[in-house]
């Protein structure tokens, strides 16, 4: 089937924590923005019209491979020019993946202003179909009272030489507080939980109920019991939750922001947001008890449902060191190795399409894109060494990766460790966003089976704006044979005086 959405993107006002009303980015006059829903195999068309007036925009469908439609992936100046105010742009793609995703602006630090919402792909052949009665979608997020137009210039300035990220004012469930999720006794629910926040990882637990994790980031895994999960910005987790047999009480569930990410802890900050499993509205809605320990389920222990085995030894290893440092302007930047990403003028995908044989030369993508050219079909390993003291959730566009290894905090670099091939799991868990600990390292592996230009970046939006991004240019010559860019995409460039004939 074809599912069509007409999205008018414009400013609206909202006050989700009841403390402060502010402009947020809505769709069709609404915020929270609508959910995108489809079935596996559907063709999805999104007609996006930018009515913001003062900002360009774009939409990224986080976690979708965009196989054969790399130009529909969304990041501005990567797979498209950003959409100028007053104009329209059509995304058209087929979804062949089941599960829990989201969509968000991928332009200039914009999504924390509200352009972020669930994208659910239903699967008539899900192996878990018979095991639950109903579904519930739950987003968790952090929320700022100030607009990004105010926060960003201050963050990326010499007035902030340490790169301290703005601390959010609140956390939200489904972009609100005091959320009551109606449940019935003796049923099993599939909860699809999505962290659509800009910065904070969240510890999440349900009082009196256990979770059985069955999917993360669109990949089915063998059911795993958890009392508490951790979701970084951009991660998703689906779990089965079975309700009590009686309706004599309501139960709190909590998301607690990971305050280790925050440089300062404002005295008035409430790190927690509470919601309730509402069995009976006539019963009280109790405050949650304090927990003594934040000890979440470790996602690397999950086993993929399909038992996909460890990819063989890599054809190519890309080793990236995460470094935070100042530049001559006195502001703090984030680096992979010695490069802090700066978006090129011409989208990197268009450069790949127009550069002929030179498209396999990483230098044609410009000096600040951190471009790596991948050959079709090769096994690629990404090692990330954190030389920084913060946690970073790393996301790869266009793929799921196998997560082979994550060191403890303070473990140093992977190259200096004694970890070898024999230490990697036989059937590694897979997802698209994976957390790296302070001064630690991670090892990821994937097969370059999806020609396109795919970003690899920290999903903390502050770090996107300060440059913690690399560009994977995958099989550019194959792209030249297969992709045709629609005229409305080229028009977005032309309207901004951007030539699409290469850098
Ligand atoms: Cu959620 Cu670059 O993406």
Automatic annotation (TrEMBL):
<keyword id="KW-0677">Repeat</keyword>
<keyword id="KW-0408">Iron</keyword>
<dbReference type="GO" id="GO:0033573">
    <property type="term" value="C:high-affinity iron permease complex"/>
</dbReference>
<keyword id="KW-0186">Copper</keyword>
<protein>
    <submittedName>
        <fullName>Laccase</fullName>
        <ecNumber>1.10.3.2</ecNumber>
    </submittedName>
</protein>
<keyword id="KW-0732">Signal</keyword>
<keyword id="KW-0472">Membrane</keyword>
<feature type="domain" description="Plastocyanin-like">
    <location>
        <begin position="9"/>
        <end position="125"/>
    </location>
</feature>
<keyword id="KW-0813">Transport</keyword>
<keyword id="KW-1003">Cell membrane</keyword>
<dbReference type="GO" id="GO:0010106">
    <property type="term" value="P:cellular response to iron ion starvation"/>
</dbReference>
<keyword id="KW-0410">Iron transport</keyword>
<feature type="domain" description="Plastocyanin-like">
    <location>
        <begin position="342"/>
        <end position="476"/>
    </location>
</feature>
<keyword id="KW-0406">Ion transport</keyword>
<keyword id="KW-0325">Glycoprotein</keyword>
<dbReference type="GO" id="GO:0033215">
    <property type="term" value="P:reductive iron assimilation"/>
</dbReference>
<keyword id="KW-0479">Metal-binding</keyword>
<dbReference type="GO" id="GO:0005507">
    <property type="term" value="F:copper ion binding"/>
</dbReference>
<keyword id="KW-0812">Transmembrane</keyword>
<feature type="domain" description="Plastocyanin-like">
    <location>
        <begin position="135"/>
        <end position="281"/>
    </location>
</feature>
<comment type="similarity">
    <text>Belongs to the multicopper oxidase family.</text>
</comment>
<dbReference type="GO" id="GO:0004322">
    <property type="term" value="F:ferroxidase activity"/>
</dbReference>
<keyword id="KW-1133">Transmembrane helix</keyword>
<keyword id="KW-0560">Oxidoreductase</keyword>
<dbReference type="GO" id="GO:0052716">
    <property type="term" value="F:hydroquinone:oxygen oxidoreductase activity"/>
</dbReference>
